[in-house]
C-alpha cells in the first residue's frame, strides 16, 4: 500500500484563509449591491447622455443666432423617444429648446444660469417627468441643458461597477494572502522549527536534554511537555540499565579472578589452557562492560598524548598472548605528533584492536604510528566491504562462532567519537585488514 504523503499545515492554512477571504468579499459585494438597490427609490437612474446629444446638435448661424441641427444622434434619440424635449441656455443667456417642455420645467428652463447639475425623477408610474440638468460642450459653445431623462436600471450598473471594483481588490487580497500569510505563518511556526532542530540533536550521548517551551504556540506546548516527559522516563530507564550492567560487571570480576586462580592451580595443562581461554573471555567481557561505563561518564582529554609510547606499551603487555598464539607483533614508529586524548582509553582500544587481530587475523600483526594516526594491520582473511560498517554495531560478530561478545569495536568507535577522531577499515597489503585510528593534533583546538 502506497504511503500517503503528509499534508502541509502551512499550505492548508494559506488555502483556507484565501478561500475565506474570497467568500467574505463576495458576500460583502452582494450585501453592498442590495443596499444600494434598496437605498435608491425605484431602483433606476436617469441617463444624462441626452444633454451631450443636445449640446452637439446646437450650432450658430453666420448672424450669430442659435439653431438646432438634425444630427445622426438627434435622429436616433427622437426615434427612441418621440416626445423628447430639452431647454439649453448658453453663457450669454441665449435659450434654445426642442419639443414640448412640460409645465413644471418651463419656469426652471429660464433659471438655468442658477442651476448646473440635477437629477429629477417624479413619483409617477411610469416616470413621465424625469429630467436631468448638466453642463455640456458643443460646436456653439458651452450650455446648461435641461432635458428629458431616460431611466435605466440601477441594478445592472451597480453589479457591473461593484464587480469591476472587486477584481483588483480580490487580486490584491490574493497577493497579500500568498505573500503575507506564509510570512505570518512562518513566524508563528518559527518556535516549532527550533524545537524540531533541537529534537534532531537528542541521542544517547546527550541524556538529560529537554526541548525548550519558549516561543512556541500554546497548542503545541502539551506535545512538547509529553515528549520531555518521555525523554525523562527514558533517561531514568537508561540509568537503571547502566547501573545494573556496571554493578554486574564489578561483581563478576571477583569470582572470575578466583576461578582463574583455581584453574591455574590444576595439574592438567590441557584443561588449564581450555578453561583459561574461557575464563579470559569472561574477564574481557567484564572489562568491556566497565569500559562502557567509563565512556558514558565522559573521556577527559589532555594535550600531548604520545601515540608511539602507547603502541610500545600495548605490544609489550600483549606479548605473552601473542607468543601463546604463535603470532608476531611489529611496532613501526614513523614519527608521531602529540594528540588530544586520554592515554588510558587509547591504550584500551588499541589493545582491543590487537586482540581482534590476533583472534581473527593471521600470524603477523603490525602496529604502525605516523603523525596523528595509529594503524593495526594483520595478514588474516580481511573484512568484506559490506560488513565494514556493521562490525562497529554492539554485539555484532563477523563470524557466528567467533569468540567475544561483539563489544570491542563498538567501544573503539565510541572512544574515537569522544576524541573527535575517527576509525577507518581498509584492506592490508597482504590481504588482511587495516584498522586506522586518526586523532586530533594537539596543535589544534578541540571542537565545541
TrEMBL record:
Subcellular localization: Membrane
Molecular function via GO: kinase activity
InterPro entries the UniProt entry points to: HATPase_C_sf (IPR036890), HATPase_dom (IPR003594), His_kinase_dom (IPR005467), HisK_dim/P_dom (IPR003661), HisK_dim/P_sf (IPR036097), Sig_transdc_His_kin-like_C (IPR004358), TCS_sensor_his_kinase (IPR050428)
Lineage: Bacteria, Pseudomonadati, Pseudomonadota, Alphaproteobacteria, Sphingomonadales
Membrane topology summary: Multi-pass membrane protein
Organism the protein comes from: Sphingomonas colocasiae
Enzyme Commission code: 2.7.13.3
PROSITE patterns assigned to the protein according to its UniProt record, in alphabetical order: HIS_KIN
Name of the protein in its database record: histidine kinase
Enzyme class: transferase
